[in-house]
């Protein structure tokens, strides 16, 4: 009998360990790239091996009849066709399995949607110039981006639901258009509430920084925890990420030391089946602080 019990234990223990391992949520790191010429190339960002998603920041002008404008800071000038050279880097990232998205908006720019038809026009423009459509003058060349990110912090709050539905409808043309959003942590987000209510977003990276009512503060994760639980319970998205500054210089508040992230925040966040990982603002500050390198194995 003892021999049979020992044999049974040898069978059950590996199965139990396998179950426990598989039940722990694992995620990845998303990063914003494009707003600092000192952050290195897009290819070097992907070659680091630290990220699963890279978000190109930003399309700072769009909507209300305005000609859309891509602003990649010191990297290239789209007005002269200088950003088309990024096509090779984008394709190199994608060859590694890294998704590359284009972010709309940001904290500085001139953008708003004036009507449902305006939103549909913006979606058509994005499809033809950055996604799977065709255009005679694609700003990033022939590379086809994986999707669109909504970082809406200015302008009006209406019609972003129409924009998300219009963009999502292009997935029927054969290649999925991924949608992501970067709402502020106070729920609901003033600009993205309507869009997120569509349930069409694959990734939502909540900005748990520069928002003291819902961010980490001096060793206390209570406010962040409460906000995280609200977002994961109320937002219908495939995966939700913890948005963080990559260094103390990257934001006015909300920086979480890597050791605290690993020991307190991630164990809390991984209890949700919607946990997707962390988002970092931005690549330049991550290069300086190596935040992603410090926490990569724990995320």
UniProtKB/TrEMBL annotation:
**PROSITE patterns from the entry?**
GH18_1, GH18_2
Compartments in which it is found: Secreted
One function term, GO molecular function aspect: endochitinase activity
Identify the InterPro entries for this entry. Answer: Cts1-like, GH, Glyco_hydro18_cat, Glyco_hydro_18_chit_AS, Glycosyl_Hydrlase18_Chitinase
What GO cellular component term, any one, is given? extracellular region
Q: Which domain of life is it from?
A: Eukaryota
The catalytic activity of this protein is classed by the Enzyme Commission as 3.2.1.14
Q: Keywords assigned by UniProt? A: Carbohydrate metabolism, Chitin degradation, Disulfide bond, Glycosidase, Hydrolase, Polysaccharide degradation, Secreted, Signal
Q: Which family does it belong to?
A: Belongs to the glycosyl hydrolase 18 family. Chitinase class II subfamily.
Name of protein? chitinase
Give the source species: Rhynchospora pubera
